[in-house]
TrEMBL record:
GO terms for biological process: intra-Golgi vesicle-mediated transport. It comes from Aspergillus nanangensis. It comes from the Eukaryota. Keywords: Golgi apparatus, Membrane. Residues 231-428 form the Conserved oligomeric Golgi complex subunit 5 helical domain. This is Conserved oligomeric Golgi complex subunit 5.
Length: 473
């Protein structure tokens, strides 16, 4: 059918996107039948549809016959164009492939070789670092072994047969050993690839050194330092400030030096929390527990001795003298700790190295940051002697009541001598709350504030009341 030739077929209806075959068939049936007809005549609409299909097929055949040559020409042109494009694309693909091969040869393979060299260099560097760490670890281990031998006096004489000589200045050797242990601990605790000592846990000799030397040495140093604190005493050093002999002064200085070394050692060897953000948050648990144990032992031993002396009054004078001496030791401990600032700790995240700043201050000024404050905070007190007397008094009342409940000669003697007991206990507290003469020349800033007996009247009253109130009932 030629273009513009009229046709009874409504092509626009068939080409409409919303065309519905069911609606079109229904319209044909309704158009060729009456609504009241019982049997529907479907032959007419079916003939109509078939005729329309034949007409459309004829139209398509006519169009394709007339346009065969243009269609074939168009198809040939399209095929030729596609072939030309394909040839050009193959040439470009070939060029790209050749360029990639050249790039792979000149860059990629060289990069792979360079990357292998880089990996080898990194592993070689890690090996060198680990070897240096192992060498330093072994050097420190050898150094620690010599320091421990100096402490324990395991070495023999020059001829190999003489017995070992006693260790000289062993508290200094212990302090040096603690510093060596801290250095080893820092190497063993390395967790980052760039840190010194990273990977030591994979080296057998390092593990052996840690298990067989470092850990036993650390336990030994801790125990020796704890013993030095538990044995600390200044009240036993004879002589006054003016009349102290040279040997007595030397003994006092030696006792103070041993205490400071022990405190420094336990501070350095105290475990560090994992998530410690600042050095000011560090609490030396090992040191604090040892000092608290010293206080607890002093209180318990004093309580037992005093209760025993109250049962046998002839021993009371000697016991009260020992009791005042024990409190003087505690007061001396407080004076030393009050003038002792925390040592520099290499493992703290921001180590406070303010030695130059503190040394530039007036030497008669007590440092604001000292090792006494953490102990006072742990004991929840403002003074160690006050804590000693008040703890002793709190436990003494019940023990005196037990003596009176048992009755007998001890109870009668206590009641008949209660005035003398009160007076002697008060004198004991005031005498024990004074710094021992051996420490007055060694510690600054403590003599004028703590030596006066008037500052301890309240503690004396508490001690007297712990005994007197029970006896006066």
């Amino acid at each position: 059918m030629a273009e513009g030739e009229p046709s009874y077929i409504d092509y626009e209806a068939f080409l409409d996107p919303e065309f519905s075959p069911s609606s079109f068939a229904n319209s044909l049936v309704v158009a060729t039948n009456n609504a009241t007809d019982t049997p529907l005549d479907l032959s007419t609409p079916l003939s109509r549809v078939l005729f329309d299909l034949q007409e459309i097929d004829t139209h398509i055949h006519t169009l394709t016959t007339k346009s065969a040559l243009p269609l074939l020409t168009h198809t040939r042109d399209q095929t030729a164009a596609a072939g030309h494009i394909l040839n050009e694309a193959e040439e470009q693909i070939s060029s790209v492939a050749q360029g990639y091969e050249r790039l792979e040869k000149e860059v990629l393979r060289k990069w792979e070789t360079a990357d292998e060299a880089r990996v080898a260099a990194e592993k070689s560097l890690a090996t060198v670092r680990l070897a240096r760490a192992v060498a330093r670890c072994l050097t420190l281990g050898r150094q620690l072994e010599g320091q421990i031998a100096e402490v324990t006096s395991r070495g023999s004489g020059s001829d190999g047969m003489t017995p070992p000589a006693p260790g000289r200045d062993d508290h200094r050797a212990l302090e040096r050993a603690a510093s060596t242990i801290v250095s080893l601990r820092r190497m063993f605790s390395a967790t980052g690839p760039g840190e010194e000592g990273y990977g030591l846990d994979r080296v057998r000799v390092a593990r052996t050194l840690k298990n067989e030397l470092v850990m036993p040495a650390e336990n030994l140093v801790k125990s020796r330092a704890a013993q030095a604190i538990n044995r600390f005493s200044m009240s036993t050093v004879s002589g006054g400030v003016a009349g102290m002999t040279q040997s007595g002064y030397k003994q006092a200085r030696e006792s103070r030096a041993r205490l400071i070394s022990a405190v420094t050692i336990l501070y350095l060897l105290s475990p560090l929390p994992r998530n410690l953000s600042a050095a000011s948050e560090f609490q030396p648990e090992l040191l604090l527990s040892t000092l608290q144990g010293y206080m607890h032992t002093a209180i318990v031993s004093s309580l037992n001795a005093l209760v025993k002396a109250l049962s046998v009054l002839p021993n009371l004078e000697r016991t009260l003298s020992e009791l005042s001496g024990k409190c003087q030791d505690i007061l001396a401990l407080e004076a030393i700790l009050g003038n002792l600032r925390p040592p520099s700790h290499p493992l703290l995240p921001t180590a406070e190295r303010n030695g130059d700043r503190v040394e530039s201050q007036d030497q008669d000024t007590v440092p604001k940051h000292n090792l006494l404050q953490p102990l006072l905070s742990a004991l929840d007190t403002s003074s160690l002697p006050s804590y000693f007397w008040r703890s002793l008094a709190s436990s003494l009342t019940g023990r005196v009541q037990e003596i009176l409940n048992r009755g007998g000669v001890s109870a009668r003697t206590l009641r008949s001598n209660r005035d003398r007991l009160k007076r002697e206990i008060r004198e004991c507290v005031l005498r024990g709350s004074q710094l021992p003469p051996s420490i007055l020349g060694l510690e600054k800033g403590r003599q004028g504030t703590e030596a006066g007996s008037g500052n301890w009247e309240r503690e004396a009253a508490v001690m007297v009341s712990s005994v007197g109130n029970v006896l006066d009932r």
